[in-house]
């Protein structure tokens, strides 16, 4: 996380928390500031509509990002990007997908998918494979859809004529 993003996180965490939400992540990249917020049961459009102008006003007043930039305030989505140790800790026991940096993948597969079973300050464990944090290029949770609905719609019983 960049220094500006860290300062924005310190500024926005209490503001977002006062709305009953959690600041999930902040990413500053290429003139775009992405602010991901969440809450128990998920986030809705009305809440995002309330938070977005409040976040924008707080950032404008702080002067952290002089000049023009694009602000995106959104949910982290179904498949969440895991960028911090706290993100990994939050999702222990769930299925994740990890892409390793090219140099780290010499002895291992470059892509790993499985259950995240352990996290410490130095590494994560996915299905028994230890992965050093600095070897992770990108990691996300994996959302699994339920079974597909049966085709043809519901069937109804016809009443017998007497």
* Highest CATH level, the class of the largest domain: Alpha Beta
What sequence of helices (H) and strands (E) makes up the elements?
HEEHEHEEEEE
Number of domain modules:
2
Profile the largest sheet: 5 strands, antiparallel
Helix content range: 10-25%
CATH superfamily heading of the largest domain: RimP-like superfamily, N-terminal
Oligomerization category of the chains in this entry: single chain
Q: What is the residue-mean pLDDT, rounded to a whole number?
A: 88
The CATH topology of the largest domain turns out to be: GMP Synthetase, Chain A, domain 3
CATH architecture of the largest domain: 2-Layer Sandwich
> Over the alpha carbons, how many angstroms does the gyration radius reach?
21 Å
Low-confidence stretches: none
Structural shape:
flat
Trace the largest sheet across and list its strands.
7-6-5-4-8
> Using DSSP, what is the number of strands?
8
Strand percentage, roughly? 25-35%
What is the count of DSSP helices, taking H or I runs of 4+ residues?
3
